[in-house]
Specification:
- The chain has about 350 residues and is mainly α.
- Helices cover about 70% and strands about 0% of the residues.
- It contains 15 helices and two strands.
- A two-stranded antiparallel sheet has the order 1-2.
- α1 packs across α5 and α5 packs antiparallel against α6.
């Protein structure tokens, strides 16, 4: 968008459409270690990508002109408001068209798709509009050399961000590998951590957590049962009722998990959540019998996601419950085992999803 905006102001809309079309048509994307480009992507996808950019640009340029914007005018006092209008219109159209495609393609509600992406889009505008204006200013003073001087650091910053996301991806894959190590030991919880992540994320979004809080919660959700690696398989796989001694051993897994996580610097933020995800709102849980605000909210969210998935899954000592049976238990344990606000958010989610299966 930085390039789009600066070329509209430095050149004109027609030249910008040509630049944007070439850029979108011949871009190379790397997705899951595979490169996608015009030679191996379906033509209709390339055409769609180019089309939504052109449509967004055409209409946003009209809005720019309507609010007094003129081309090759570098007076910030004159172009600032029209530039903001152009950027907002461009962003809204681009996102609406993309979300409409997602709706047609995967059935996601348009409103849901927009809600999930609109915040990031506005952050993009906040970051990209000033950069575009800086490039325009550099061109006004130094010509195309100025554009290159500004563009170089921008590309370097983009590369740095790409490297950061690669490192973040490697970090997340490491966490997933740790959770899979537990599932390899306990055959009855295959896929359990991923499902807990899914439920926990939905609850967090319903409770209006920030994106950074949600990311942290997802990490903790993947790791919540890591301590079971220290529990004998004979206890984990026992088909009958556990003895008091065996149950006491099971109750050690949150502390074992917290100790494992706290020894890894990048994961220490999840230690208390892992330690306390079996604490109850009324103080009857373990390992410390904490209650109410003594327990991190993330732990309460994981607790209900963990319990719901456990109730809906086959275990060595019982068959899976029905969705209705699990929901009834959650309702009964509101304010006892589970945090009331978390229960309310989760029940809203389950009600909106409908269906009879977990």
């Amino acid at each position: 968008f930085t390039i789009t905006l600066s070329s509209v102001l430095i050149l004109n809309p027609l030249a910008t459409m040509i630049i944007v079309s070439i850029g979108m048509a011949f871009r190379i994307l790397k997705i899951k270690d595979r490169y996608y480009h015009i030679l191996n992507a379906p033509f209709y996808k390339t055409l769609f990508n180019v089309s939504i950019m052109i449509i967004s640009l055409l209409i946003s340029v009209q809005a720019y002109e309507l609010f007094g914007g003129i081309y090759r005018n570098f007076d910030i006092n004159i172009i600032l408001l029209p530039v903001i209008i152009l950027s907002v219109v461009f962003f809204l159209l681009n996102y609406f068209l993309m979300c409409f495609l997602l709706h047609l393609w995967s059935g996601i509600k348009i409103s849901t798709a927009i809600a999930q992406n609109v915040k990031m889009g506005f952050l993009n505008i906040i970051g990209m509009v000033p950069l575009g204006l800086i490039m325009v200013g550099a061109y006004n003073i130094y010509g195309y050399l100025g554009v290159l001087i500004v563009f170089g650091p921008i590309m370097l910053a983009r590369y740095s961000f790409a490297m950061y996301f690669e490192m973040k991806k490697a970090y997340l894959n490491t966490v997933k590998a740790l959770s899979l190590a537990i599932e390899a030991k306990d055959k009855y919880i295959e896929g359990h951590s991923e499902r807990v992540v899914k439920y926990a994320e939905k609850i967090a979004r319903k409770m209006h957590f920030s994106e950074s809080q949600i990311e942290s919660l997802k990490i903790s959700s993947l790791l919540h049962d890591i301590g079971k690696i220290g529990i004998p398989e004979a206890i984990l796989d026992k088909p009958g009722r556990l003895t008091d001694e065996e149950y006491s051993k099971i109750k050690e897994h949150p502390v074992i998990g917290a100790n494992i996580v706290s020894n890894i610097e990048a994961l220490r933020g999840s230690a208390d959540v892992v330690r306390y995800h079996h604490e109850h709102y009324d103080g009857t849980g373990y390992p410390k019998g904490l209650s109410k605000d003594e327990v991190p909210m993330d732990a309460y969210i994981i607790a209900i996601a963990d319990a719901f998935d456990a109730m809906c899954s086959d275990r060595p000592y019982r068959k899976a419950m029905t969705r209705e049976e699990a929901i009834d238990i959650i309702k009964k344990e509101r304010g006892k085992q589970f945090h009331p606000a978390v229960v309310d958010a989760f029940l809203e989610i389950l009600d909106s999803e409908g269906g009879s299966r977990c």
